[in-house]
Amino acid sequence: MQYEITAPAVLNHTVDLPSSKSVSNRALIIHALSGGGMLPQNLSDCDDTDVMIKALRDMPEVIDIKAAGTAMRFLTAYLAVTPGRHTITGIERMRHRPIRLLVDALRYLGAEVEYAGEEGYPPLRITGRPLDGGRIEIPGNVSSQYISALLMIGPVLRDGLRLHLTGDIISRPYIDMTLWIMGEFGAEAEWTDISTITVAPKPYAARGYNIENDWSAASYWYEMVALGGRDSEVTLTGLMDGSKQGDSSVSYIFSLLGVKTTFGTTEEGVPTTVRLSRNGHCVPRLEYDFINSPDLAQTFVVCCAALGVPFRFTGLQTLRIKETDRIEALKREMGKLGYVLRDVEGRELVWSGERCEPLPDAAVDTYDDHRMALAFAPLAMKWGRVRINNPHVVTKSYPHFWNDLKSSGFAIDIHE
Ligand SMILES: O=C(O)C1=C[C@@H](OP(=O)(O)O)[C@@H](O)[C@H](O)C1
Ligand SMILES: C=C(OP(=O)(O)O)C(=O)O
């Protein structure tokens, strides 16, 4: 299926963003480890959270987490400390997303985890039991999700956990967000030196928890405002100033590309809305390190090229093991649209301003990656129209994205 998206002349709308899947999936694991009570509020309705809710509610013998990296990694640790035998699996791509470092760490703690297919990759067979915990090492440069997974089981380990991270630390704000949410549920977990996190063996306290909306999803609306006319304005709901989500850095980066962020306040004085408008300034060239916010890379690659802003983006080394190889996907699709990107050893993407002949009537392929559809659709604001193949991929994190576009005045023609 293909969507042909036509943009409105002026964008001026209020958008109710989806809830954060990263926060939702952490709150669900911690809620389960705290012994239940009231479910977290404002859970995301996306696929990645849906699989987590169902797994924790039903605990079937075979748990299929589809394409959700967080669910695969967080549930692996959860199942290792929860009595019962389960196989955890996912879609074909998930069978190629590495998990060895997490499995090694759990085995070191005494967990029973076996590979049901290829060594180093899902599916896994896990027999859960109480574990002692103690001190372990894990490289910090592959996926922060392994670290978050281990941290979240820390409070239920008999001796707690001292986690020593070796090498560079990537996606660090996600680790800090894990520690923050654990703290909200009464855990004592903190950095005790530059590369060590200590978690006390103190049980979680059951409590209600309200989940913030998704700053990564906000990035696509920032992009639309950046690419739209001078009068473009969007209000986004459910976002906090001082958010613990690392992707809230989107507001700073877009200030360099002409978008102003104004936080609004509800009657109760709680800041929950963000108004995006044009600030009239745009840098002539952008250099940025995405090591802390890998999920924003696609947004800025597409947006900068469309604005004619040459860029050098570093810290992209984890993009190859996400929903697709995002480095290759970006190079190929941007090439179809007439932009020649170069990668440097799979860690950087550079656009010097070089153009090539665009394919006539090019349609953007999405590679089973929600962020390909989400990041390329805003191009309609610049060109009037854009075509996206397999548009349903957005359900991984933002199921009502196309409806939100329609409510904002976009037209969507469906081609089978
Ligand atoms: O912990 C999380 O919620 C996430 C961590 C990041 O993954 P890596 O740590 O693998 O970079 C990010 O890309 C992913 O979308 C969500
Ligand atoms: C990488 C992502 O998700 P995950 O790793 O949780 O599948 C993402 O949402 O961009």
TrEMBL record:
Key words of the record: Amino-acid biosynthesis, Aromatic amino acid biosynthesis, Cytoplasm, Transferase
Chief localisation class: cytoplasm
InterPro entries: Enolpyruvate_Tfrase_dom, Enolpyruvate_Tfrase_sf, EPSP_synthase, EPSP_synthase_CS, RNA3'P_cycl/enolpyr_Trfase_a/b
PROSITE patterns, sorted: EPSP_SYNTHASE_2
SUPFAM superfamilies: EPT/RTPC-like
Active-site residue numbers: D295
Keyword Cytoplasm annotated: yes
Chemical reaction(s) catalysed: 3-phosphoshikimate + phosphoenolpyruvate = 5-O-(1-carboxyvinyl)-3-phosphoshikimate + phosphate
Gene3D superfamilies per the UniProt record, alphabetical: Enolpyruvate transferase domain
Subunit-level organization: Monomer.
PANTHER family: AROM/DEHYDROQUINATE SYNTHASE, PENTAFUNCTIONAL AROM POLYPEPTIDE
Role of this protein: Catalyzes the transfer of the enolpyruvyl moiety of phosphoenolpyruvate (PEP) to the 5-hydroxyl of shikimate-3-phosphate (S3P) to produce enolpyruvyl shikimate-3-phosphate and inorganic phosphate.
Family note: Belongs to the EPSP synthase family.
Listed name of the protein: 3-phosphoshikimate 1-carboxyvinyltransferase
